[in-house]
Write a structure and sequence with these properties.
Blueprint (H helix, E strand, L loop, with lengths): L1 H24 L4 H82 L17 H5 L9 H5 L19
Helix pairs in contact: 1-2
């Protein structure tokens, strides 16, 4: 549509320039001038019809863009409603858990005894994979002794583990 409009404007401009050039250059060519004016009028009329058709086409496309906007807004509202429901569920859960925790903390303060630990939520997180893959640590073997078994100390001093860098 934009290229059609540009072509029409260029065509109108060139025709108008020809007509104006003929009218200003020589007054004896009235017949040619009348023909140029007629051509220019016809060009204006054609341009008017084509602009109307372009505007009608753009008006007909606006409901599509409005429909697309409405669909996007409805989708956005649905996502926000789901998020609100999710957080309302979490709030309800904590509203049931917090009074029990408050009761247990008051009991501890009053009796100085530890209550049984609260039951975890329905889904408990799995232990980290890195911690599960580590071998059990032997408390009799210090960390420094096991860390240098197969490694050479690459610093020059033998008595200091870490160098002071300033």
């Amino acid at each position: 549509m934009a290229s059609d409009l540009n072509e029409l404007v260029d065509k109108l401009s060139s025709t108008f320039d020809k007509c104006l050039g003929n009218a200003l250059s020589d007054t004896s060519k009235e017949e040619k001038d009348k023909l140029d004016v007629t051509i220019l009028k016809q060009c204006f009329i054609d341009l008017q019809y084509q602009l109307k058709s372009i505007s009608l086409a753009s008006i007909q496309q606006k409901p599509l863009s409005v429909k697309e906007s409405i669909a996007a807004l409805e989708k956005d509202i649905a996502i926000k409603q789901q998020t609100i429901e999710k957080y309302n569920g979490k709030i309800e859960h904590w509203l049931t858990v917090l009074p029990e925790l408050e009761r247990q903390s008051r009991q501890v303060l009053n009796t100085n005894q530890l209550p049984p630990p609260p039951t975890p939520p329905t889904s408990s997180p799995a232990p980290p994979a890195a911690a599960a893959d580590l071998p059990p640590r032997d408390s009799a073997t210090p960390v420094e002794a096991t860390s240098h078994l197969n490694h050479e100390d690459d610093d020059d001093d033998d008595d200091m583990e870490f160098e002071d860098v300033s």
